[in-house]
Every structure is written in structure tokens, then in C-alpha cells.
Design goal:
The protein is of the alpha+beta class. It has a five-stranded antiparallel β-sheet. It has a five-stranded antiparallel β-sheet with strand order 7-6-10-9-8. Helix 1 crosses helix 7, helix 2 packs antiparallel against helix 18 and helix 13 crosses helix 14. The radius of gyration is 37 Å and the shape is flat. The C terminus is likely disordered.
Length: about 625
């Protein structure tokens, strides 16, 4: 009867476990897909915004220049070619006069036709708005390819329409990039305007130009700028999971879609494997049931043997302070000496028949298990310290020594333990450890800010640099702090440092980071495992939290205390931790140079030196034309 009940319960458990695991794994697969798609969508939205931003800034500068000046054609055409070459996403840049004729162009051979019939030209002609207009896709008359047009109005100083400046981006620029991602056999990536107009999609579709009537544009974007949901795809009619992200600065929406079949493909494979394993496990359960009867008989024999031995140890340790216990080889307590009443204020019956681990404090059970593994030979006598609870609820520390005692053979072996109360000794040791720990903390902590000091920071950075492939460092400097000290005095300066340090400590508390006072008014944060872009967000969070302190600074242009932050990430060019700190310091220098109260990422400073498409060449060329 017992075996039959066990068998039924085990079969029910196996089937229930497989069903639960299948349900849980399906939800996990969907959650993982949602996270992956949303992360990819966010990255692609940032890529799209970056793709538009550089031409946008360039068009704004040139529109402003053309408002007041009339550059020489040869020089300005050459400048446009430089700009086009510096921004690989651009096919060409052109300037049309008020009649739609080509005025300037990055194209070597200027076309003779007019672009006055283009919708974007008519929009700028009829509207005084000088903001960037995103239109398309249109078939370029110059290349014959689908093209996205970025355009701005050119006005005279009196506000009259003077023409349009445009930058053309081939749709293929996006589709080629989107095609590098693996989204399964039915996945797709789209970039659309905020009204649902399809600008580019991979894989390409010819029949659909807009999806403005779908729930994405009719409802969801109005509720949230980003999201994840299940739909029937308007492109191919398949059930898909779609993540979307709307860019904050441009009228763009990026979507990433994966078919339900691709998302759950791995789950279905795992389900088939689980079903096979469940079948094998059920066969094993049946075999185990057959062995239970033999186990029951063996247990009866062990019980009789324990009863005989209990009488042998009953007279042990009745008059000693130490507790003597006797256990079988499975760890069940068969005897405990009367001294347990004195030491633990607990009766003997409270221990008899219990597994020894059940009476040990839950945090110390692994330590006792590790000690028991040494009991392989009769000569072994491992010792271990652990905690037990008295009847009053207080904690007692015990030091135990165990040995294996054999009567006739190893099959009859018992475990004998002697437990000594070392509570007072442990309390003295703990007090000494706390004192030593406090001294060590004082040696590694800045006394004013309570953050780690420079010595502790250097040690942590050295270890983190060696242990982590991904590692970011923040250098934070309080803007105009010398003037703050000179104007309000050192007590106010110390209070300011303490408040800023508290903000830094709170902002990095849940990031796994390490915050320190680097020196003077400088602070540093180490973020192991955090890439540069996430580190920049932590830096911006610190900077904004400092602004919210609203600490008065009479000698600062903003009248409030603010900080500048330099961010650097370990990469192939950082040979050691000192190079990483140098990169962060250079980024901090650029933050100061840009006007303070900002965050600068090291990689952006190096890119400006190498590529410099949007500032260095542009400003230099514009300056030469103004001359």
C-alpha cells in the first residue's frame, strides 16, 4: 500500500513538474525575447537618431550661413563634398534656390532639372518653419534609388524664402545595416516616420508604404514611447512579437519583429527533450519503488541495533559539562547526555530522533556537512564550530569533535560527538574581530566624506582592471569649487563635499560600483561590468542629483553647485588602469572645456579627433568661408 501510494505520487509529481516547467520555460522564452528585442530596438533607435543628427547639425549651420552670405560656388561645392565624404550615410548634399534650381551641390556634375515640384520644397516654400523636415522615401532623380530626404528652409535676413538645403540618405544604408542582425527566418526591422510612413525596412516590401492605421500609431505610441506587444504583422500576416521605440528628437519610430515560431523554437525543442527525460524518470521511479521494501527491512534492523547501543552509552557523561551525542551514520540523534539541560536549557527528548542538521543553526549547516565528510576513517576526528538555539531563543556557540565508533563492523558504525560550550570565547573573538575591522575601515576611508580614500580606490581599480573585460571609470569634479571655498569658507566647502559624496554613494549603491574621494574636490567611481553608455547614464544621474541639492554658489555662473563628469571604458587601447584613469581625466577636461555641468564620454573625444565630421572640419571650413 505504501509503495503503491508512493508510486502514484511520484508519477503525478513528474507529470506536474514537466507541465510546470513547460509553462515557466515558455514565459521565460517570451520574456527573454522581449528583453532582447527591446534592447535591440533601443540601440537601433539611437543609431537612427545618430544617423540623422550629424546631417541635421550640418544643415542647420549651412542654412544659417547661407542666410547672410553667398559663398563662392567652387569653394562651397568642395565643402559640401567634404561633408558628404565625412558622413558615410549621405548620398549627397544640395542647395536649391527659391525657384528649385541647383545652386550648390556635392555632386560633381550639377543636374539641370528643377526640384520645385518635390513635396519637401513646396512645404518649405509655403511655411516659415526652419526646423528639420524628414520626408520620403522618394525615388532619387539623381541615383534612381529610394532615398530619405532631410531638408531645411533657407530664409533671407528679412524672413523671405530663399531656397532649400537637403541631405539625401539612401534607404539601403539602413536596410544593409538591419540585415546584419539575426532575427530568424520571418523577422524584420523597420524605421518609420511618426505618422506611420515606412522609410526603410528589412526585408524590403514593395506593396506597403504606410502602417499609420495600425494600433501602433493609433494607440500605443500615444500611450508610451516604447513597448512590446503581439500582433498580426501588416507586412506578411504572421503572428509576431514586436518591440518599438520612438526617438525623442526626431519624428522616427523603429520596430523589431520576430515571428512567434522563431521566438518559441528553442522552447519546443526543450519540451521534446523534457518529455523524453520524464519518460526515463518514470521508469526509474518504478524501479525505486521496488527497492523501498528492502529499504524498510533494512531500517528495522538498524533500529534494533540502535536500541542495543543506546543502553551502552546511557551512563556516559552524566556528570560532565560537555554534551555527548550519539548518531547513526545518517546523522539521526540516538542519544544525548543530560548535560544538554545545563548548556542549552533543553530536555534530552527535544533532540532524540532528530537529524543533527535540524538542530544546528541554518547558517552553519554547510560547515557541519563539510566537517562530516572527513569522517571516512575511524581514526579521523574532525572538529567544527556552530550555533544552536537555546529554549529561551538565545544563541549558544558550540565546538564539536566527532569520531566514528565501530562495534562489530563498519556497517554497525555510529558517530560519537563531544560538544563544548564556547559562547563566551566566541563573543570575545568577535569583539576583537570587530575592532580590527573598524581599524581597517578607518585606514581605507576618507574621514570627511565617508567614501573610500585614494589608497582604497587604487587597490580596487587594480583588482577590477585585472578581473573584468568590461570596466568603466567616472571622474567627477565640483565646478568652481575653489571660488566656493574662497567665497563661503572652508566649513561650507566641507559641507558641500559631504553632500556631493552622499549623492555619489546613493547613485552607485545598486550598480555594483565603488565610490571614492579621489582628491580635493574630485571623486571617482569604478563600475565593473558596466559598459560606457550605461556608465554615462550613471554619470548624468549623479550630475542631476547634485543639481537638485540646490547648494547656493554665489561665484558660479549658474549660482548653484554643479559637477562635471568624465567617463572612460576599458578597451583595446587601454594598456593598464593608469591609461583608463588618463582617458577619464581627458574626458573630464573636455567636460570643463565645454562649459562644465556636463558629462563627456572618452570615446566621443577620440572620435572627434579621428573623424570630426560635425565640428572640427565644419567649423574650420565655415571660418575660412567667412574670411
Amino acid at each position: 500500500m505504501v509503495v503503491g501510494t508512493f508510486l502514484v505520487l511520484m508519477i503525478a509529481c513528474v507529470i506536474g513538474l514537466v507541465a510546470w516547467k513547460a509553462s515557466y520555460a515558455r514565459e521565460a522564452a517570451l520574456r527573454q525575447s522581449a528583453d532582447s528585442q527591446k534592447n535591440l530596438t533601443r540601440s537601433l533607435a539611437q543609431h537612427a537618431a545618430s544617423t540623422f543628427k550629424a546631417p541635421d547639425v550640418a544643415l542647420a549651420g549651412m542654412a544659417d550661413l547661407l542666410k547672410y552670405q553667398n559663398p563662392q560656388k567652387v569653394r562651397f561645392d568642395a565643402y559640401l563634398r567634404e561633408m558628404t565624404q565625412a558622413m558615410p550615410q549621405l548620398r549627397f548634399i544640395a542647395v536649391f534656390d527659391s525657384a528649385g534650381s541647383w545652386r550648390y551641390s556635392s555632386v560633381e556634375e550639377r543636374p539641370e532639372y528643377s526640384n520645385a515640384d518635390r513635396p519637401y520644397f513646396a512645404y518649405h516654400r509655403d511655411n516659415s518653419d526652419t526646423k528639420l523636415l524628414v520626408s520620403g522615401p522618394v525615388t532619387s532623380r539623381l541615383t534612381g534609388l529610394p532615398t530619405i530626404i532631410l531638408s531645411r528652409r533657407i530664409s533671407t535676413p528679412s524672413g523671405q524664402f530663399a531656397g532649400v538645403i537637403v541631405a539625401a540618405i539612401d534607404c539601403q544604408f539602413f536596410t544593409s545595416f538591419f540585415g546584419s542582425f539575426n532575427l530568424g527566418t520571418q523577422g524584420g526591422i523597420s524605421i518609420l516616420k511618426s505618422d506611420g510612413t515606412l522609410l526603410a525596412r528589412w526585408p524590403a516590401v514593395e506593396s506597403i508604404r504606410t502602417i499609420g492605421d495600425t494600433s501602433l500609431f493609433q494607440q500605443r505610441i500615444g500611450e508610451s514611447a516604447s513597448g512590446f506587444y503581439r500582433i498580426t504583422s501588416p507586412f506578411d500576416g504572421l503572428i509576431k512579437y514586436v518591440a518599438y521605440e520612438q526617438t525623442p528628437n526626431y519624428p522616427l519610430v523603429v520596430t523589431v519583429a520576430q515571428s512567434e515560431g522563431d521566438v518559441l523554437e528553442g522552447w519546443r525543442t526543450d519540451l521534446a527533450s523534457d518529455a523524453l527525460i520524464a519518460g526515463l524518470l518514470l521508469a526509474l521511479v518504478i524501479g525505486v519503488a521496488c527497492l523501498l521494501n528492502a529499504q524498510f527491512r533494512f531500517g528495522a534492523r538498524v533500529e534494533r541495533t540502535l536500541q542495543e547501543r543506546e543502553a551502552r552509552f546511557r551512563l556516559l557523561a552524566d556528570n560532565i559539562a560537555d554534551i555527548v551525542i550519539v548518531m547513526d551514520k545518517k546523522g539521526y540523534i540516538r542519544y544525548v547526555s543530560p548535560s544538554v539541560v545545563t548548556v542549552l536549557d533543553t530536555s534530552e527528548d527535544a533532540f532524540l530522533g532528530k537529524l543533527c542538521l535540524d538542530v544546528v543553526h541554518e547558517d552553519d549547516r554547510d560547515r557541519v556537512i563539510n566537517a562530516s565528510r572527513q569522517l571516512k576513517e575511524a581514526a579521523a576526528s574532525p572538529s567544527v564550530r556552530f550555533r544552536m538555539r537555546r529554549a529561551s531563543g538565545s544563541i549558544a556557540w558550540l565546538e564539536a569533535h566527532f569520531r566514528i565508533a565501530e562495534r562489530f563492523s563498519s556497517a554497525d558504525a555510529e558517530i560519537v560527538g563531544v560538544l563544548r560550550d564556547v559562547t563566551k570565547q566566541k563573543e570575545m573573538e568577535d569583539e576583537l574581530s570587530k575592532a580590527n575591522l573598524k581599524l581597517a575601515q578607518l585606514a581605507m576611508t576618507d574621514g570627511l566624506t565617508k567614501l573610500a580614500n585614494r589608497r582604497s580606490f587604487d587597490a580596487f581599480l587594480r583588482d577590477a582592471y585585472a578581473a573584468h573585460d568590461v570596466l568603466s571609470v567616472l571622474l567627477i569634479d565640483i565646478d568652481h569649487f575653489k571660488e566656493f571655498n574662497d567665497g563661503l569658507g572652508h566649513p561650507a566647502g566641507d559641507a558641500c563635499l559631504q553632500q556631493v559624496a552622499e549623492v555619489i554613494g546613493r547613485a552607485t549603491a545598486n550598480t555594483g560600483g565603488f565610490s571614492a574621494r579621489y582628491g580635493g574636490e574630485e571623486f571617482a567611481v569604478i563600475l565593473p561590468g558596466v559598459p560606457e553608455e550605461k556608465a554615462a547614464r550613471v554619470a548624468d544621474a549623479i550630475r542631476l542629483l547634485v543639481q537638485r541639492l540646490k547648494i547656493r554658489h554665489p561665484r558660479s555662473p549658474a549660482s548653484r553647485v554643479a559637477v562635471s563628469v568624465g567617463v572612460a571604458q576599458k578597451n583595446h587601447a587601454t594598456s593598464d588602469e593608469f591609461t583608463l584613469i588618463r582617458d577619464a581625466d581627458i574626458a573630464l577636461y573636455h567636460a570643463k572645456k565645454r562649459g562644465r555641468n556636463c558629462t563627456v564620454v572618452s570615446s566621443t573625444t577620440t572620435n572627434r579627433v579621428a573623424d570630426a565630421p560635425d565640428l572640427a572640419p565644419s567649423l574650420g571650413s565655415l571660418h575660412r568661408m567667412r574670411e
